[in-house]
Every structure is written in C-alpha cells, then in structure tokens.
Amino acid sequence: xxxxxxxxxxxxxxxxxYRHDSEVIGLPMRFGLYLPPHASHxxxxxxxxxxxxxxxxxxxxxxxxxxxxxAEHGIALITPDTSPRGEGVPDDKDAWDxxxxxxxxxxxxQEPWSRHYRMYSYILHELPDTVVGALPxxxxxxxxxxxxxxxxxxxxxxxxxxxxxKSVSALAxxxxxxxxxxxxxxxxxxxxxxxxxxxxxxASELILSRQRRLNCPILVDLGLADKFLGEQLHxxxxxxxxxxxxxxxxxxxxxGYDHSYYFVSTFIRDHIVHHSNFxx
Length: 280
Known about the structure:
Blueprint: E1 3-10, E2 13-22, E3 27-35, E4 44-50, H1 59-63, H2 67-73, E5 76-80, H3 119-134, E6 137-146, H4 149-160, E7 165-171, H5 181-191, H6 195-199, H7 203-208, E8 218-223, H8 229-233, H9 235-245, E9 249-254, H10 261-279
Parallel strand pairs: 4-5, 4-6, 6-7, 7-8, 8-9
Antiparallel strand pairs: 1-2, 2-3, 3-5
C-alpha cells in the first residue's frame, strides 16, 4: 500500500513523494511522482528518471526543473530512490560510490548484498506495477532515463526490456561499466568475479552481443568539461558498438558542461520531448 509523504502543487500538476513496503527489496522504499495537469482527465504516459550516485528520490525532482516541461507535454515523472536504505542494510560508510545510494540497478548475487540490493527487479517489475495499479499512469506508455550511474541503469533496463520501456535516454551515463573503476568496484561486490554476469548489466556489451537492440533511437547528452568523462563514462565505447550493430544513437557532446545538475537542467527539456514523441 502506498503512503503519501508529501504533496506540492507545481505547474498545474502535483509533485508527490510516496513510501511503500517493497517485497522485492524486503524493506520500505520511497519514490517521487510528478503528475501533470492531464492526469486529472485520465491515465498519462510516464518517464522513469533514475538519479546518480549518492542521490535519492528527491534529487531530480528538486534540482532538474523538469516539472515545467512534463506539464507541457502531459507526461508523469517517476523518480525512485537509488538503493535500499534502513537499519540492517549493508553499506560501506567510507565509500560514496558503493553501498547505500549506489545500487547500480543490478540484482546482487553475493552476500551480504543479495538480500536487499535488487534494484533491477524493483525498477522493472514492482515499481511499475505499484504505480500503474494505484495511480493514473498508463502502463503501456513507459519510458526510462537517468543520469550517471542511473544513466547506466536506464540503458540496461531499456535494452533488456523494450517490451516495458518504449523509449530511452541518458545524461552522462556510465556506458561501459565493466571497463571503469565505478563499475568494476560495484560489479565485483554485487555480482562476483564472472564477467559474463557483468555483461548482462553493461549497455555496450548488451548492444555488442547483437541480442539487445532497440527500435527507437537512444538519446545521450554529455558535457565535455565532465571530470568523469574519460575514466568513468566511456561514451566512445557506446558510440562504437552502436555504429557497428546499427543501433540508432543520438550522442550529443556539449562544450563547457560538467557532470552536475546545471548540466542536467539545461538539457532535460530535450529528453522529455524525446520521450513524449514515442509515448504519445
């Protein structure tokens, strides 16, 4: 059952925050939901937006300025938390890029993470079923996007589940997590040493296998002043596999922009328009 935590009027719609008991995670989870004015007349399409490392369900809603554009295009915004949280949840308190706030959208197989760190299944199954069952969301018109770590999650979830997510985009995503320090650290702890298992959560590897291609184009924006660009994000790996397999990719590189929400807020309108074109 959903518990409404707070509600705020915004551009003719409402920004809400909910808590619910998750069977998949085994703990209470929180998420944000922006309902545009159109939702008062019937079900609306929805964009899942996944925030990055060390963020939570409020980060995108507060910082991105997306509600104005979602209201204009009649699309709901669903913003999950980035990991399980609470008493008894394993964490590495000395690491901001692993543990709580850094679930990496995998179903962990290794102890002690496997009990609660099941963010892939939570985003794919439980959260869509929950919002569609209780709120005016059209479950046949769902898109997914994300920033940084969650850009990685958005790409993987869409590539593996195009029957659920009909459109996809990402801002500064970790495009080849099997090849970067963030991904290697997270995957080795959550998934163990098998790189074949890692590949199931790596967008570049999924496309390279030619078993995961989308009918819709992937929109990706990057800032050329992003300090993580070379070591962590690897956009060229994504561009290469898309070119080699015929996956349509609109990769845009922007001089002067960094990894922050100043960058996200600058280009979020383009992403909402991109999704609206496929979900209308």
